[in-house]
Amino acid sequence: MRQVSDMFEPLSRPAEMIHQSALLVLLITAGIFVVVTAMLVYVVWKFRHRGAEDKLQEPPQIYGSSHIELAWTVIPILITFVLILVTSRTIGEVQNAPMPKNAIQVKLIGHQWWWEVRYPEEGIVTANEIHVPVSSRAVERRLPTAILLESADVIHSFWVPQLTGKTDLIPNRTNKTWIEPFATGTFFGSCAAFCGLQHANMLLRVILHEPEDYQRWLAKMKASAKAPASPLAEQGRKDFFANSCVNCHQIDGTIAKGGFGPNLTKLMTRQTLGAGVAPLNQKNLSEWLRDPQKLKVGCLMPDMKLQASQIDSITAYLMTLE
Amino acid sequence: MNTDIVDENFQMPEPERIGQERGALTRIAQEMVFTVDHKILGLMYIASGLIFFVVSGLMAVAIRVQLAVPGNHAVPPDVFNRLFTMHGTAMVFLVGMPIIFGFANYLVPLMIGARDMAFPRMNAFGFWVFFFSGVLLYFSYLGAPGLYAAGSAPDVGWFAYSPLTGRAFSRGHSTDYWTLSLLLGGIGSMATSINIIVTTVCMRCKGMTLGRMPLFVWLFLVVALMVIIALPPLSACQIMLTLDRYCGARFFDTQAGGSAVLWQHFFWIFGHPEVYILILPGFAIASEVIPVFSRKPIFGYPVMVAASVMIAFISLGVWAHHMFTVGMSSLGNTFFAISTLLVAIPTGIKIFNWIGTMYGGKLRFELPMLFCIGFLFQFLIAGLTGVMLAIASFDWQLNDSYFVVAHFHYVLIGGLLYTIFAGIYYWYPKALGKMPNWKLGLWHFIVFTIGFHVTFFPQHISGFLGMPRRIYTYEAGRGWDLWNLISSIGVIFQIVGILFFVVNLIYSYIWEKDAGDDPWDAWSLEWATTSPPPPYNFETIPEVRSRRPLWDLKHPEDPDWKFE
Amino acid sequence: MTDMSAATTTAADPIEWKLPSTRKVAVISLILTESSLFTIFLVAYLFYMGKNLNHPYPADVLKFPVLATAALLSSSFSIVFSEMALHRGSKAWFHIWWAITIALGSYFLWFTGTEWHNLIFHDHLTISTNVFGSTFYSLVGLHASHVIIGLFLLSLILILSLLGKIPKDHTEHIEMISWYWHFVDAIWVVVVTVVYVISTGVPNV
């Protein structure tokens, strides 16, 4: 679990590119800070007014000095020139990186306040978690992931600091970003553009697998749903379709084809519900069904006013979706 | 009827003394409402700005209380979103802008040897429009309640990105209060700025060529020109947004082919020059205070002017550095990274010129100078974090994180507010006739500086660790807990520091000694008249021959005009 | 009160102290501000050219307004003639040319009104129809609002002058109003070119 998303611990190629130039910039600015602060401290100390005798005479009235001013203009220009070169190079490197043909394709669609995750080539749709395989440092076995970014409503922003810099999800526009991770694990990210009431609870997890593990995950996601085992779950399935759940949610292979809310086909493969607002388990799932507004006030799933028996049954049904 | 009778018992009535005639309070209130005197309007601008500063500051306190610990329930999300929206909007438009216009209003005519601004009635108009816009914005708390989470004060951020501000996503009228308040405020700012331009260009006293104006006046001329160019895009934004919300226009309606990014372009074409409009007056104050308390003229006056003009020009071409993450091409990103880095050059040069002014001087650590030294150190940090943000690739990590919050608070508090404190302490004797108390001011300086750094320095770190902006809560275990707690503790020191400031303002007025015309032994024309100045400013309009007319007066053997 | 004499200019330093007129600088500043405002609406119009999702497109419904443009541009000439008459001292011709200016400006406004009426009721183009509608009405409307303000100011001057209320030395005040009017005209040149000439030739993707 990589809960601490430290941009200075990059574990993906674009993040590493950014990190390199960031370190150089930090070094230069730290150097400038030290030099100028030293000048300031020196001047404040050396030229402080010393007692009454000092009051009698004004110091020499210097108006300026072309040489000194030239020096402290030229040096910043040179430093700026270096910074311009550094930044131009990194911008080009990251934005115009060529994607190999075998790159994993992911499409991320932002909603108020959850992430729709689609794998167009695999026909998989899930929510709030992106699963991709790690890449290899060997050039011939590179496996980056290309991510398309769109939005269904307002502006959101995809930000997983250890994997890459952020890019916005803007309605009526498709943005592109990419990651090329080199370490497995669960990486935490957030929506980084204010998108309304629950912007703070639009959390994202990127789970990085070893390649074989990723294939297993793919297979699991594509496997058809099992029939509900227990009578309670079967009752829950009936209750689910009888209520208006189907208007907002999709479950593959059923009449539920709503697109407003997250796709629930493989709900139980996810670690959290409500885009990170609570861990996904039976208790929280029941709480969510009882009143989603309690766990995530203002979220766009209304209180469905289910009866206690319906809550139990639907919870049981949903827990079979894996 | 005989009118020749002389009344032997006639007694000449005593002259009325201000404040002691019957109904004095109403007389003063009337004067405030109807005044066109630039000095009174200037003080009203500053006083209103300081009142909004306290109100908006309290909102920031609430924000820090909520964020002190993870998963906190002190402030619900809808209230929190209104808090940071109102805090940002108020600080920029109801604190920053009025205080800088207050300083300009009070000092520009005095410094150029004029009797008032060019258009005194328009001056009053500008003030009252601003004041009304402030009341309107805060009235939204009362006047706009609606459906659950669909009314009350605006909650869309101070920059109000579309389509979040569209009718579909911002129901109720909260966004409209934001829009209209800023539209009005913009009109007031433009009116005041035209006044400043005309006054500076057309009303300088004899001998005061543009090259002999105090830097304070130069910088405000540049600021005023920037306002008249950069505020109209904001007005255009507000008009387009209102047309979208009420007439079904499609400017930012992404469902109808509109562009969400267009709002950002137009807003930041205003927004970036706006932040230079806010900080340049800080430079103006520093350029007056530092020379006087170093006992030397400003180092490199011509370059300081040139650098300010360059900053103004370049700042009109850097706006999209707020948009590095929207998916512009690498060419676009590179262009704006370069222009943003370029603007750092003239800004940095100014810091060197101020230090150069102090070098070889005899520094007096009076209150204005203390705050200017704080300004130099803190603005240096702010500028350097700004350079980091200019690097577009670095910005892809830092944008919309707490690093940016730290950066702009270092600019606006560490930079602008410190120079405002310096300016208030420096011209307090001129405006109110009394010296500010040094001990109370020192407490103000020390306590507030501690609080400022304790609050805002850790935010650089939480930004590096991935904490986004504008979130009302955060999970534990993200590595942000400690930094947020420290940040919130700093607030206590800031509050105490401000209390010292307020107490000082009041205490000094009542109990400190009279200041006299020129308590700091300074050199510009405002010190050549009484404290406070009479309504007509100068008995006779002065004539000048150099940049420091009072230096020439006090040092007839060594006047400036021999050396400039 | 400090005695400034030691710091003042001496006889050896005879600069004639002439600063620009406050009115001129104020109107120039106003024109700069308004230009900035119009620029944003122009940019919005240019940005959205060719991006409509539905008809009507500019080429469908816009016809170059020959008479109205001629009227507005002529009004710049008539106002110049009016000022020339004022400088000659001929009050009668000042009033006549000034009134002609108002008439030409009013005709322009009337034309805009009828054009909008046709667009809304016959061509079904409103501000909410598409981005063309939004940008067209806002840009042309912004200009028209400035024409209205200009006509108001011009009429005020005409009435006050006919009543004999304008002092003889107020030529500069009148000149400033004419500068504003010229500005409104210049904006129209840009608007008509962008809207009626350029955008009608841009294909919609």
Low-confidence runs of at least 5 consecutive residues of chain A: none
Element string of chain C (H = helix, E = strand): HHHHHH
Q: What is the average per-residue confidence, as pLDDT of chain A, rounded to a whole number?
A: 93
Name of the top-level CATH class of the largest domain in chain A: Mainly Beta
The top level CATH class name of chain C:
Mainly Alpha
Output the CATH topology of chain C. Answer: Four Helix Bundle (Hemerythrin (Met), subunit A)
Q: Which structural class do the helices and strands of chain A define?
A: alpha+beta
CATH superfamily of the largest domain in chain A, please?
Answer: Cupredoxins -  blue copper proteins
* Overall pLDDT of chain C: 92
Secondary-structure element sequence of chain A? HHEEEEEEEEEEHHEEHHH
Largest interface: A-B, 90 and 95 residues
Number of strands of chain A: 12
Domain count of chain A: the total is 3
- Strands of the widest sheet of chain A, in order across it, are 3-2-1-5-8
Q: What form of chain A results from the Cα inertia axes?
A: elongated
User: What's the total count of β strands of chain C?
Assistant: 0
Describe it for me?
The complex is a heterotrimer of chains A (322), B (564) and C (205). Chain A has 322 residues and is α+β, with helices and mostly antiparallel strands. Chain A has seven helices and twelve strands. Chain A has a five-stranded mixed β-sheet. Chain A has a five-stranded mixed β-sheet with strand order 4-10-9-6-7. In chain A, strands 11-12 form a two-stranded antiparallel ribbon. The model of chain A has no long low-confidence stretch (mean pLDDT 93). Chain B has helices spanning 24-34, 38-67, 77-111, 120-143, 174-202, 215-247, 260-294, 301-315, 330-358, 367-390, 392-398, 402-432, 438-464, 481-511, 549-554. In chain B, α3 (77-111) runs parallel beside α5 (174-202), α9 packs antiparallel against α10 (367-390) and α10 packs parallel to α13 (438-464). Chain C has a single domain, classed as Four Helix Bundle (Hemerythrin (Met), subunit A). Chain C has six helices and no strands. The chains are: A alpha+beta (322), B mainly alpha (564), C mainly alpha (205). Chains in contact: A-B, B-C. At the B-C interface, α5, α6, α7 and α15 of B face α1 and α5 of C.
